[in-house]
Design goal:
The complex is a heterodimer.
Chain A: E1 2-6, E2 10-14, E3 19-21, E4 23-27, E5 32-38, E6 44-50, E7 56-58, E8 64-68, E9 73-78, E10 87-96, E11 100-104, E12 108-113
Chain B: E1 5-7, E2 10-13, E3 19-24, E4 31-37, E5 44-50, E6 53-56, E7 65-68, E8 75-79, E9 88-95, E10 106-107, E11 111-115
Parallel strand pairs in B: 2-11
Antiparallel strand pairs in B: 1-3, 3-8, 4-5, 4-9, 5-6, 7-8, 9-10, 9-11
Classes of the chains: A mainly beta, B mainly beta.
Chain lengths: ~110, ~120
């Protein structure tokens, strides 16, 4: 069994301040972890992914995430928020190996205040 | 190049009618995924294909839902005898390789289904 918990349904930050979006996962196998972003009226787009290589992963638009196995976490961070970062962010756990199991979190809506 | 396209973008139907939702993946992509997303929730996996073979349909809610990808390209998700609880955004994604744990999935814009 696997699950994903995004601890905050809404996060509000001021422009120029750091962003932290939290994600915890549970999996019986070694998972791959992804963050996808969805801007209003657009499709989902990959931000970054962890697939068992370096635990600190850098993505597009200055975002990064660190895989911490001991904490079963994969939090998304960005040093300085921009107005264009306002969107909904989804953490995703995927396990492959004879079958594929894809589980999305419930999403975190990021609001950036000017 | 063209991304993943889905049609129709919006579908309103009456309870009991059948609907067919189409997904046109990026050319050459091996894998195709279907998801359902209820309001305020994350996408929920329904099924996926590698080429024309349906690899996993464990996420399909019941036997009213079916999907096919007969030539390994375009896919159709069919819902028979629709019910109001089927109302949701249906999303399709494709990926170049056949391994979800490493591949990037490219998502279409979705089909918003409303069942009256």
């Amino acid at each position: 069994a696997q699950s994903v918990t995004q601890l905050d349904s809404h996060v509000s930050v001021s422009e120029g301040t750091p962003v932290l979006l939290r994600c915890n996962y549970s999996s019986s196998y070694s998972p791959s972890l992804f963050w996808y972003v969805q801007h209003p009226n657009k499709g989902l787009q990959l931000l970054l992914k962890y697939t068992s290589a370096a635990t600190l992963v850098k993505g597009i638009n200055g975002f990064e995430a660190e895989f911490k196995k001991s904490e079963t976490s994969f939090h998304l961070t960005k040093p300085s928020a921009h107005m264009s970062d306002a969107a909904e962010y989804f953490c995703v756990v995927i396990v492959s190996g004879g079958y594929q199991k894809v589980t999305f979190g419930t999403g975190t809506k990021l609001q950036v205040i000017p | 190049g063209a991304g993943v396209s889905q049609s129709p973008r919006y579908k309103v139907t009456k309870r009991g009618q059948d609907v067919a939702l189409r997904c046109d993946p990026i050319s050459g992509h091996v894998s195709l995924y279907w998801y359902r997303q209820a309001l305020g929730q994350g996408p929920e996996f329904l099924t996926y294909f590698n080429y024309e073979a349906q690899q996993d349909k464990s996420g399909l809610p019941n036997d009213r839902f079916s999907a096919e990808r007969p030539e390994g390209s375009i896919s159709t998700l069919t819902i028979q005898r629709t019910e109001q609880r089927d109302s949701a955004m249906y999303r399709c994604a494709s990926s170049l390789g056949g391994t979800a744990s490493t591949d990037t999935q490219y998502f279409g814009p979705g089909t918003r289904l409303t069942v009256l």
